[in-house]
Amino acid sequence: MIKQYLILILIILHTFSSKAQVEYLGTSDGLSNRYVSSIIKDQQGFVWFGTSNGLNRYDGYNFKIINQGGSEKELSNKQVNYILESKENNCLWIATDNGLNKLDQLNGIIKKYYFYTSNKPRALSFSGISSLCFDNNKRLLVGTKDGSILRINNKDELEEIYRETDSSSLLNMQCDKENNIWYCSAKSKLICINNAFKRTEMSLRFDAFFTCFNIENEIGFCGVNNIGIFCFDKKSGAIIPNKMLDSLNKLNTLPMSISKYGNTYIVGCRKGKLLLIDFHKNTCLSYSWLTPFKNDFGSNIIYSYKDENGVIWLGTDGGIIKINLEESNFEKLLWNQPGVSKISTRGICEDEKGYLYIGTYNGLFRYHPNTKKTERYLVYYKELKRMVNPNPFTIVNDTNGYVYMTSTAGFLRFDKKKLALECLVPGISFYGLYKPNDEYVFLGSYRGLQKYSFKTKTLTDVRDVNNKYNLRNIHIWKIIPSNDGAMWLACSAGLVKYSEQKGITDYYSMANKKLVIEEVLWVYEDKNKIVWLCTNGGGLIKIDTQKNTIENFTTANGLPNNVVYCGIEHKNILWLSTDNGLCSFNKITHEIINYGIRDGITDSEFNTISAFKSSNGKVFLGSINGITVFDPEKIAAKISSPKIILIGYSKFDSKSNSENENIFGLNLLDHINLTYKDIFVSFSFALNDYFDPQHNRFEYMLEGLNSNWISLENQHTLRLSSIPAGNYSLHIRGINSKGKMSMNEINLPIYMSAIFYKQWWFILIEIVLLIALVYSVFQYRIKQLLKIQHLRTKIASDLHDEVGSLLTRISIHTELIKHAHLDIDKNKNELNKIAETSRLATSTMSDVLWSVDARNDKAGNLIDRMREHADAMLLPLEIDVIFNHNLNSDKTINLTVRQELFLIFKECIHNIAKHSKCTEVTIDLKNGNGKFELLVSDNGKLKAANSTQGQGLKNMKMRADKIPASIEIWQQNGFHVKLICKSI
């Protein structure tokens, strides 16, 4: 038994060195309350926490709090006991101490529920809810604190389906595959209710409360307060013996919560103990060392939850603990914990027996992965007569029994049989090494390229056969063969391609403007004749020797640093060691994924000439603190893309001087309409990867305004202001802390309308109005021209009709006098007729000219003209004239109306003077009540010879029609003419 305890303890203690990161979230981070009773991650990617002071939504950066209140967007009670998501309805069910709430995640509206019992209304909002679950038909079951089981029916109403006899609180309610309802009674009972609502009380009897349990197939797993963890048979209720659990219970685990993820049970206990139990592997791992509870944080794990990314969320009575328990992808070799002396590594190679040869600043290490045995070797320096630390750089295995290496102590050879180092060329620091055959090797140093002959044991400088370039003044780090039999030299002056027969055939450097950086630390040529360069500050460079193109990749493309030391290829992936961690670079898609110390690498700073791929496919990368070892295949299998989500959207309205923020239903937002009043619009977003959200990065592109992705670094908020009017498409994508691009993009069409006077309809109205104005002016001009033309025609017609006839009469009388033999009296009579006709012609011409003169448009001019004419015609005949009017003398009268009125009046006076035997004439002009009235009356009678109407009366009616006006002529106690038209 003691042995079993020891084994268990060793298993638990072994997890202390496991890779895990811990983060504590409390009220200082925005959490509404320290006591966290429930946790869930919804399908959108948000994490929800139920606390003693409301519901909290967490997006990796901020908490949004939904608390108690009376509105439709607040809970019925601030004490949240349980949270459950309904994915089909996009809602969260929230159990509180004062009823059940349903939060619609599309609009943020909360519905409160009531139920009825015994035909009497009973508000559920006054009954505490202790637990929630779904049955196999996806119907919600509700457990209350007073012993009721409720269910949501088809009418979205609560109905009571069962009541516990002792009215005790129902805790941790669950439904198994047979649709049986299980729950813990607050009175130390575990109870099952079948489909027929038959109650079965499990025979598990403890003098303590059941704190938690989980049902799996035929076996139950329960935690009992102050006692421990047990397995039991669902049918019989009997405890199933388990040695591992027995051992755990001896350690006083005191469980408080149980949750299941895959095959693992996560058990949260009192005093901060956290256990991960796998019954399939019969293992129990303790992570209690990750939860160092203090008095100011809490002591009990009330709720545990593990999301799809492997992040464990713990709800405690002191806040939230987030634990990243992702299994490490990396192994560490020659690695020491921080604070201990570090082993900085350089060259690495493997021999035919599987031994690894590792060059370090502490000498040469020989290591076998199976035996884990490490041997250290120094070299004997004859000149100094002592052993010297060689610090090997490049190491190459040879099947003839030797391992060759360059070092700061010279060119060395390790004898695999004698297990001893010997120095072939002392006194020179060599770096690059290439052995094309058994006769000689090429060595790179700070003195350029050199050639060592094994036969003559001599070292000679290599010169360019064309004498075009000097190889002696460059520092050569790496030498590799090219696909055409030449050599690539990565050096301090760029990249050189050298052939023993042709000399230097290609040269890439800053001097000839082919490279952006001078120093090349590593070179690699793939099967497609693409040459890849790792540089000291210029990032990764791609040279296509066939297309003669060069492409540069830097931190702007996602590299963790522009100092790139080495690159190892595996299935189109270049694994690059840098000055700020490790990254994988996809040669086809150019996708970059970064890894740091949090992921398990030995150190963020790697070393030059320290990369190797073993025969079993593992990659070895040397750093200033040992070697990072990994299998590229396994890492590739674990890489998954995160999802980006919109967590907030707001806009500022300058008219109302307010900012409106939306946090619900943003996944359904398909476009945004903005107006000139919206000074700015703000978007907040996050990735559903909570592994290390503070190092997630984001990029955006506002299509229609720019066509390039703009980096926001680790900012998760974008504010756009002063957007010109137009149609745009906003794209946002995220990159998690490992450099993995999000599987999706936020794509939002944005329609920015212009201010009203810049909008198309207003511009169209302006154009129409302008056209109408031009047309009106044109029409007015035409009418004026036509009016002038009409006036000219009228004047000509009037002169022709009125004056022309009179002139004709004068002409006739003149001819009669000229040709006729009349006596003097008759001649005098004819001459009088001529004089009278001339006067009449002059008067008529004066009337015509007066009528068209614009200076006579006032009503006063018309009155004066009428009065003058009446006096001139009637007073000489001893006829009294009475003239009455109420016209405004300053009012303008239309030319046509004025002319026709006067001519009608003139005709009346003329008829009175010629045909009426009267002694008095009354003239009345009245203007009012929307009409004008002219009445001319006399007290006479027509002369016998003129008793019938003549041409003059017909002319009067014709002129009245032109105004238009009605005219009435009658004889009753005198001669009367009455004209009526609209007001003038």
Order of the strands making up the biggest sheet: 63-69-68-65-66
Poorly predicted residue ranges: 1-18, 118-125
Shape: elongated
Distance between the termini: 127 Å
What share of the residues does DSSP label as strand, in percent?
Answer: 35-45%
Radius of gyration: 54 Å
Q: Which structural class matches the secondary elements?
A: alpha+beta
**What is the number of strand segments?**
74
What's the main sheet like?
Answer: 5 strands, mixed
Helix content: 10-25%
Indicate the mean pLDDT.
84
Q: What count of helical segments does DSSP give?
A: 8
Walk me through the structure:
This protein has 984 residues and is α+β, with helices and mostly antiparallel strands. The chain is built from eight helices and 74 strands. Helix 4 (760-819) runs antiparallel to helix 5 and helix 5 (824-852) packs antiparallel against helix 7 (895-915). The longest helix has 60 residues, at 760-819. The radius of gyration is 54 Å and the shape is elongated. The protein starts with a helix and ends with a strand. Residues 1-18 and 118-125 have low confidence and may be disordered.
Q: Outline of this structure?
A:
By secondary structure, the chain is α+β, with helices and mostly antiparallel strands. It contains 8 helices and 74 strands. It is elongated.
